[in-house]
Amino acid sequence: MTAHPVGAPPRRPLRVGPHALLVEVAGGEEAQALHAELLRRRAAGTLPAVTEIVPAARTVLLDGLADPQALAADIVRWDVPPLAASGGTPVVLPVRYDGADLAEVAALWGVAADEVAGIHSGLEFRVAFCGFAPGFGYLTGLPAHLHVPRRATPRTAVPAGAVGLAGPYTGVYPRSSPGGWQLIGRTDAVLWDAAREPAALLAPGTRVRFEVSA
Amino acid sequence: MTGSGTDGPMSETDDRTTGTAAGPPALTVVRPGALTTVQDLGRPGHAHLGVGRSGALDRPAHELANRLAGNPAGHATLETTVDGCAVRAGTAVTAVVTGAPCPVRVDGRPVAWGAAVRVPAGAVLDVGRAAGGLRSYVAFAGGLAVPPVLGSRSRDLLSGLGPEPLAAGAVLPLGAPCGPPAHADAVPWAGPPVGGLVLPVVLGPRDDWFTPAALRTLARGAFRVAAASNRIGLRTEGPALERATDGELPSEGMVLGAVQVPPDGCPVVFLADHPTTGGYPVVGVVPEAELAAAAQAVPGTPVRFVPVRG
Prior knowledge:
The complex is a heterodimer of chains A (214) and B (310). Chain A has 214 residues and is of the alpha+beta class. Chain A folds into two domains: 12-75, Gyrase A, domain 2 (2-Layer Sandwich); 91-212, Cyclophilin-like (Cyclophilin, Beta Barrel). In chain A, 18% of the residues lie in helices and 30% in strands. In chain A, β9 (162-166) and β10 form a beta hairpin. The longest helix of chain A is centred in the first third of the chain and has 17 residues, at 28-44. The N and C termini of chain A lie far apart (38 Å). Chain B has helices spanning 59-68, 212-220, 291-295, and strands at residues 26-31, 37-39, 77-79, 85-89, 93-99, 104-106, 109-111, 117-119, 124-127, 136-140, 171-173, 197-203, 223-225, 233-237, 252-253, 258-260, 268-270, 277-278, 282-285, 302-308. Chain A: It comes from Streptomyces klenkii. Chain A: Residues 11-202 form the Carboxyltransferase domain. Chain A: This is Allophanate hydrolase subunit 1.
């Protein structure tokens, strides 16, 4: 967890209409740590009733609060432990590393195309947040030197199961959709199935590893 | 209902798909209209998975239709857009049309809007073109019994969850009526916002991303409802809101009623099918109770925002 300057508030609650609160923190790690703390407090019954807890890049949104201002006053005083480095078994997604942007990504990484699979599958990721489509997780865990820009021109159709990279994130398209991420491979894992319990394979906080499949 | 209870010990005796010669109660779509969807109170609680709330845009109209049909508020209704729809009843059913006022006919004969009407077996209920507003709601005693997805039968046009919009020939199963239709002496209808839509906006969380001039423009500018509006958002056209910062906002959680300002500077008010996260700054939030009027505002309607400091 990044140390913050002495006296600077570790989190800034922002008003979002009459029933919601957006809590802004210093960065992604802090957002995931706050999200984990909110889930702990909700499970322990010490969080006021809330309809949605939505983590994102460097915020957590709480919606459906009776008194957002009371929670805002309280939340700045919380002692939020840093994110645990590990724990639990990660979800493992088998990937064929044959994506359309593999060569492009290899060039950006400064490696040979056949080295991308080993690097990507050697990392451990965590679902920072979901969005864009049901079950689409933004996975963090790429070191800064492996961050790549989005494609200048998004594709009109990216197939379901496509594994992509954009900025600090990697992710898997749960279904065919337009998309601007750099595609490095494809998995047969079903990311989203509304008839399954749980419907989403990846939820915020889930640890994820990719595995090279033939 | 399909999709539940099929593997229980009661499944054989509880199977409603066999039985009477007339079959289970159902509707057949005769005329789907421009866009008619099944809606209920939506699926809150899944935003962290990228699943929005969805649900009836004019919630009071949806709830009133259910109440008059003798249904609980959460039963699924039909939400029409501009030109109504028509369905044939497989068995006799009680129906109620609320929301945007419109002619209602049963086998061509005019019947009441805003009241329980009996649709005999084989008859066609025709919900006509909205005389004002955009969206009518059609409740049937027992509710529409399409299979729920994550606890809701609402069609979310952004995520694609829930039953497909109505198409000619589609069959919609009905649930069992659970109470007598209610009577109302007067049916409240705020009326479409013809003189203009006035939307209070609680400023924040990102009002500081805009110049003081932009906030004055928000308060005084003459906006209009844009034709591109849909269940995802009420789009406006008018003066652009100028940003105070050129930075890029990392994705953050979005709420119903959020007034998001994309790069073109024209505010978009998020409605039921809005995305769960977004990267354009939200200048303020329209309280939920004000959104029913937004759902009935036809393109071209003048819009005035009234900023409120929290």
